[in-house]
Design a protein that fits this description.
Length: about 800
């Protein structure tokens, strides 16, 4: 049937001059312009099917950088690209803003943040020598040094380096202004925070040397504070012998061993080492000025006694506390805990509290238990994984008229999460919201609750998002585990916009290890075979944009994954993104190029081959070698351009490195379909014989295939018959399969089948029994190549069964 759209109609459509149709329900003025033409047309509002305007495309949340940190990131990026850096005054202000924010909010400095701070400081010092103080005053440097806090288990080299840079610069400025003694800040003011930074960043021995050097003249006014920092750092580094040596040095220098130092050492052996003998030794060590052990020391020691059932010695501590007639609630709280640990029931603890009240009334000091005592008992029950007793203590507090506080609800959340009562944990959280929480002490437990909720098989999505919204309103910090768990939920639900918002808000606040943990969640989603390819590609794009530091090994794994999904175009894009990296360490190597070309060879994708080959030509950092030539030869051969593939054989032959066994194998394979390829194969074979190179079974099979590809049946038969005499290999499944696969046309394949079935029945049967399709390994590329396609085996199997029948 002829089309109703004539040439005239098409011409009118091109010139936008369609006439209106009387049967069309749309008014002509809406959908066409007749002869009247105007230079400009009014904007037409696009509508959906029901006439409502479309919602604007959702924009991702901006990345949540801490003050000043974005500018320091920008500096690092520009330096890596060799571009002009931001103005120095802006960089200095960003440096100050960053550490001022850390100091005000008492936040830790992550290792990645410390690295960028080092880069910014060194850049300013190097490029702004002509500016006094290179835009940073001494007070600002002291502020940064004082704000340099890190977690106990960090021991970051970046923190250590930054602290050294700041202290060295302060020392230089001190020496330069030595004449002006009125404005000179005491050295101890800089030494104390520097010693703390050294102690807490894995360099406690160096910090001890500093204390020894400056103790007599500059640090005695600091009392035991610097020694306490050194000891604390040594306990974090777990250097037992150095702790004892430090204590000996302190004794020689007459440093008072006060209850603060006593607390550091005793708690180390009690909590970290769990060493009862040394705990006893240091707990019983005399304390200066007749001071008693602190409440925290007693609590840690009694806790160790409870854990190791050392009640006999613990009783001596308990009795000494009673003999001193404790007149403060903290000591009584420890007494209650000890009694509970020894098996006193909740009712007996209640009677002890009544005794405490009676004694307080007799002394006229108004001593009464409070909710803190109940909370300590709940904490003890939690440590023993006894939620039933914990609940009874909560009931006891209510009976005594104590009002539960924030810590009560936190402890309830803790034991309910442990036993999997997430509903009860949520109830405790709801009650917690009515309380005042100091210093965000609830955040670790809320993060644990979020992770526990996401780990359930049947997730309560609304409850999870309710918690997330509560924390987001508070602008609270999410732990890396929490972000990883939430990212997994968003991925499973296909909520990519929410995932981007989550990562932009939190991922840039973490250190390298924490970022890697979150990134691995996205990586697993990409590599999971059950993930649909469009979803995997979208996840990959989020990963590469958020985690720009992803190493080349991970990116190569992603590239191979898309090759395995038969999406060589996506895999080539992944490779292209590697090429665009600014850091040389993240750019593809020769091996990466070879692996990419190997994947293109499997796919037979000419367009991707041209793209990657052009990248090779333009990459000045790549020096072609045999491995790369092998990959190019294989790729061009598999993309139907065997003649071009053999040109790389000539390059290999004239290279300094020379051919490998894989080179010979690939070249012979290319000879199968190249014009006059049998002549090239004979030339290769002649060289192998001339130089007495050992011929492997795979190379000989490829040599047979080179002639089979040109339909030289008799020649192939002769080669297989003479195989044992020529190279010492009996005819096997590899030779027969190569012969069958390479020869063109179904009639010739039938001829090969009939000959093989009669001449070498055992080898032919072996071919049918093969459970793998990989007969050739190309070790140079690190890839297994399918020399025989799967289709050939299916076909051979069918023929064999028919013949047997």
């Amino acid at each position: 049937m002829r089309s109703l759209l004539t040439r005239r109609v098409f011409r009118l459509m091109v010139h936008n001059e369609l006439r209106s149709c009387t049967r069309c329900w749309v008014p002509p003025a809406v959908h066409c312009l007749r002869a009247q033409r105007t230079p400009t047309l009014p904007a037409i509002r696009k509508r959906t099917l029901f006439g409502f305007s479309r919602k604007p495309k959702r924009q991702p949340k901006p990345i949540n950088y801490e003050p000043g940190f974005e500018k320091m990131l920008e500096l690092k990026a520009r330096l890596s690209r060799g571009e002009r850096t931001p103005p120095p005054e802006e960089l200095a202000q960003a440096f100050v803003d960053f550490f001022l924010s850390k100091q005000r909010n008492l936040l830790l400095v992550e290792d990645v943040q410390a690295q960028h701070a080092v880069t910014t400081f060194e850049h300013l010092r190097k490029t702004q020598n002509d500016v006094e103080g290179f835009w940073l005053s001494s007070e600002e440097l002291r502020m940064a040094l004082g704000a340099l806090r890190l977690s106990q288990d960090c021991q970051s080299k970046s923190h250590n380096k930054l602290a050294r840079l700041l202290f060295e610069e302060l020392q230089k400025r001190r020496e330069a202004s030595a004449d002006n003694k009125e404005d000179l800040v005491p050295l101890g003011k800089d030494l104390v925070p520097f010693i703390r930074a050294m102690s807490h960043s894995g360099d406690a021995l160096y910090a001890r040397d500093l204390v020894k050097k400056y103790w007599d003249n500059d640090m005695m006014l600091a009392a035991s504070l610097p020694w306490s920092s050194v000891l604390r750092g040594l306990t974090w580094e777990n250097k037992d012998e150095e702790i004892q040596r430090t204590l000996d040095i302190m004794q020689k220098r007459n440093v008072p061993f006060d209850n603060k130092l006593h607390q550091v050492v005793t708690i180390y052996y009690a909590q970290v080492q769990g060493d009862m003998e040394r705990t006893k030794k240091w707990f019983q060590h005399p304390i200066a000025l007749g001071q008693s052990p602190t409440v925290y020391t007693n609590k840690a020691v009694l806790k160790l006694c409870i854990e190791q059932n050392e009640f006999e010695w613990g009783d001596t501590i308990f009795k000494s506390m009673l003999e001193k007639n404790p007149e403060d609630e903290k000591s009584w709280n420890i007494i209650f805990q000890w009694a509970a640990a020894k098996g006193k029931s909740v009712d007996e603890i209640e009677r002890m509290m009544q005794i405490m009240v009676r004694q307080g009334e007799e002394k006229g000091i108004g001593l009464r238990p409070d909710m803190n005592a109940i909370n300590d008992l709940i904490e003890l029950a939690n440590s023993r994984n006894d939620p039933y007793t914990a609940e009874r203590y909560v009931a006891l507090g209510q009976k005594l008229g104590f009002q539960p506080n924030a810590r009560t609800y936190l402890l309830q959340m803790e034991y309910r999460i442990k036993v999997g009562d997430l509903g009860g944990a949520r109830t405790a959280y709801a009650r917690l919201q009515r309380e005042e929480v100091s210093e965000n002490e609830d955040l670790p437990l809320i993060n644990k609750l979020l992770v526990a909720l996401t780990a359930k098989k049947r997730q309560n999505y609304d409850a999870i998002m309710g918690l997330v919204e509560d924390l987001s309103e508070r602008k609270a910090r999410f732990e890396a585990d929490t972000v990883g768990a939430l990212a997994k939920i968003h991925l499973e639900r296909g909520e990519m916009d929410d995932l981007v918002d989550l990562l932009n808000t939190h991922a840039f606040q973490y250190g390298s290890e924490q970022r890697a943990a979150v990134r691995d969640i996205l990586l697993q989603q990409c590599l999971d075979p059950s993930t649909p390819t469009p979803r995997a590609w979208e996840t990959y794009n989020i990963l590469r944009q958020t985690f720009t530091e992803t190493d080349i090994s991970t990116r190569t794994t992603l590239m191979k994954n898309f090759f395995s999904r038969n999406r060589s175009d996506m895999a080539t894009h992944v490779f292209g993104h590697m090429r665009q990296q600014q850091l040389k360490s993240l750019r593809p190597t020769v091996s990466t190029y070879a692996q990419c070309l190997s994947g293109i060879a499997r796919a037979g994708d000419n367009e991707s081959l041209e793209t990657v080959h052009n990248m090779v030509k333009l990459d000045s950092a790549i020096e072609p070698n045999t491995q790369l030539y092998n990959a190019l030869m294989l790729a061009y051969s598999q993309c139907g351009r065997s003649s071009h593939a053999l040109s790389y054989w000539d390059d290999i032959m004239h290279s300094r490195e020379g051919p490998s066994y894989s080179s010979i194998q690939i070249a012979l394979r290319a000879c199968e379909k190249a014009p006059f390829g049998e002549g090239v194969a004979q030339d290769i074979w002649g060289k192998l014989k001339k130089f007495e190179i050992e011929v492997t079974r795979e190379i000989y099979a490829a040599y047979v295939g080179a002639f089979a590809g040109h339909n030289l049946f008799d020649k192939c038969v002769k080669l297989i018959d003479d195989a044992e005499k020529e190279v010492g290999y009996k005819p096997d499944a590899l030779m027969l399969g190569t012969f069958y696969n390479a020869i063109p046309g179904p009639a010739h394949k039938q001829k090969v089948k009939e000959w093989a079935w009669k001449a070498y029945p055992e080898a032919y049967e072996d071919l049918l029994k093969l459970n793998t399709y990989t007969l050739v390994r190309l070790d140079d590329n690190g890839e297994e190549q399918d020399y025989l396609p799967k289709e050939a085996f299916f076909e051979i199997g069918a023929i064999g069964r028919d013949a047997e029948a």
